[in-house]
């Protein structure tokens, strides 16, 4: 009898899991993907949008034709909760039954974790296309009338590399517009030291990053916790208040409401606890991949950092889930990935960033020209067509 695998979420984790399962099942079982939108947004490229390197059409595509070609059912719907015992998903139009459930729901920004993190206080971020577009408008105004600037990665944010890339993009554009000397710059991070990235650091980049920051007169604060935000002011837990005319912050991310409010599904932050096979610790027919999964921080830090889910790490998680569900249904070997290996996959992506940012930091001629050539995130340098084509490569199933 055919089994029904339902994947909730159609971003990197959901998309990769669905296509991997389609290849492994070869039509023998049913695959359904549920998401509130059929549009796939290439999240690593959102950091480019405020600076005009990418427009919305450049970094999104409609997943439905691809799913249809692979006999994957797509349901456009909001998901409001789950009945884990009866194996039912509560969606906006109808309840949806499953035999296996994959939670690839990603996360949502937890703006409530910092007092005053609201558009009314002119706080910018790049967590979604809509917010990146608002940040683009604010950035254009700021370049014409500059002042003090704060770029920050808040406590528990995890995605520190996005703050670094935004910062260096901003410096490049301020310099190009000949207003860099009119812009006092502050970089605020929960990291215990620069280039920690929530992963314990990458190679020997601390000194190189400090040299680069000193060259551009960037004032940085590490082990920093943001307590409150007001229009034109950033309040730190230490008591320091920093003036800011343009503030961009990477916030904490938590699980979506449907996951957080379902009993026994997730932890206090709405993230799913899984074993090394990405199988839920209590419900063996539920799997998780991507941002929705809880990954413990390996090293203890004064201010909690959180752990990023980079593109490569997410892809490995998705393929592992696909292999293990196929093993459950069809038989065959299972795949296991340790927490430490996930760190190593993330570090491989971060290594690309650090090499790009800091390899010439001891060269006084270093002027950030790389910013106009390519992103620090190697995945963001792919075009949408290249990404789609790579999904169909038989080699893509390898872990």
Write the layout of secondary structure elements.
Blueprint: E1 4-8, H1 12-25, E2 30-35, E3 39-41, E4 60-62, H2 64-69, E5 72-76, E6 79-83, E7 88-91, E8 95-97, E9 100-103, E10 107-109, E11 123-124, H3 129-144, E12 149-153, H4 160-176, E13 185-189, H5 205-215, E14 218-221, E15 226-230, E16 233-236, E17 241-243, E18 246-250, E19 253-255, H6 257-260, E20 286-288, H7 311-330, H8 339-358, H9 384-391
Parallel strand pairs: 1-2, 1-9, 2-5, 9-20, 11-18, 12-13, 12-18, 13-14
Antiparallel strand pairs: 3-4, 6-7, 7-8, 10-19, 15-16, 16-17
Helix pairs in contact: 1-7, 7-8
Protein architecture, described:
With 399 residues, the chain is α/β, with parallel strands linked by helices. It folds into two domains: 4-109 and 253-344 and 379-397, FAD/NAD(P)-binding domain, CATH 3.50.50.100; 111-252 and 350-375, FAD/NAD(P)-binding domain (3-Layer(bba) Sandwich), CATH 3.50.50.100. 29% of the residues lie in helices and 20% in strands. It is built from nine helices and 20 strands. It has a five-stranded parallel β-sheet with strand order 5-2-1-9-20. β1, α1 (12-25) and β2 form a beta-alpha-beta unit. The protein is elongated, with a radius of gyration of 21 Å. It starts with a strand and ends in an 8-residue tail after the last helix. The model is unreliable at 373-380 (pLDDT under 50).
């Amino acid at each position: 009898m055919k089994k029904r695998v339902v994947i909730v979420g159609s971003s990197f984790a959901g998309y990769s899991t669905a296509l991997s399962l389609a290849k492994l099942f070869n039509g023998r079982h049913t695959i359904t993907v549920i998401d509130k939108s059929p549009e796939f947004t290439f999240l690593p490229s959102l950091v480019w949008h405020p600076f005009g390197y990418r427009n919305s059409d450049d970094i999104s595509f409609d997943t439905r034709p691809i799913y249809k070609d692979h006999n994957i059912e797509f349901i456009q719907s909001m998901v409001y909760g789950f009945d884990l015992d009866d194996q039912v998903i509560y969606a906006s139009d109808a309840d949806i039954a499953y035999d296996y459930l994959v939670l690839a729901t990603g996360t949502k920004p937890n703006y409530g974790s910092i007092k005053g993190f609201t558009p009314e206080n002119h706080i910018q971020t790049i967590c979604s296309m809509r917010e990146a577009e608002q940040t683009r408008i604010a950035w254009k105004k700021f370049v014409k009338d500059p002042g003090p600037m704060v770029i920050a990665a808040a406590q528990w944010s995890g995605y520190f590399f996005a703050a670094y890339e935004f910062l260096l993009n901003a410096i490049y554009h301020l310099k190009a517009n000949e207003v860099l000397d009119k812009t006092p710059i502050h970089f605020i991070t929960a990291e215990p030291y620069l280039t920690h990235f929530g992963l314990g650091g990458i190679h020997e980049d601390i000194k190189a990053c400090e040299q680069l920051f000193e060259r551009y007169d960037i004032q940085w604060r590490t082990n920093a916790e943001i307590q409150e935000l007001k229009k034109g002011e950033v309040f730190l837990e230490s008591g320091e208040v920093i003036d800011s005319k343009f503030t961009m912050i990477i916030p904490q991310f938590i699980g979506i409401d449907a996951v957080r409010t379902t009993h026994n599904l997730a932890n206090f932050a709405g993230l799913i606890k899984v074993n090394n096979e990405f199988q839920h610790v209590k419900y063996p027919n539920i799997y998780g991949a991507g941002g929705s999964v809880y990954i413990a921080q390996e090293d203890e830090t004064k201010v909690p950092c959180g752990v990023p889910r980079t593109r490569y790490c997410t892809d490995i998680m998705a393929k592992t889930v696909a292999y293990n569900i196929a093993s459950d249904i069809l038989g065959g070997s299972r795949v296991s990935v340790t927490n430490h290996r996930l760190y190593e996959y993330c570090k491989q992506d971060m290594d690309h960033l650090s090499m790009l940012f800091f390899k010439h930091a001891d060269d006084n001629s270093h002027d950030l020209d790389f910013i106009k050539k390519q992103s620090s995130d190697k995945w963001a340098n792919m075009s949408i067509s290249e990404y789609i084509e790579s999904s169909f490569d038989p080699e893509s199933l390898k872990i």
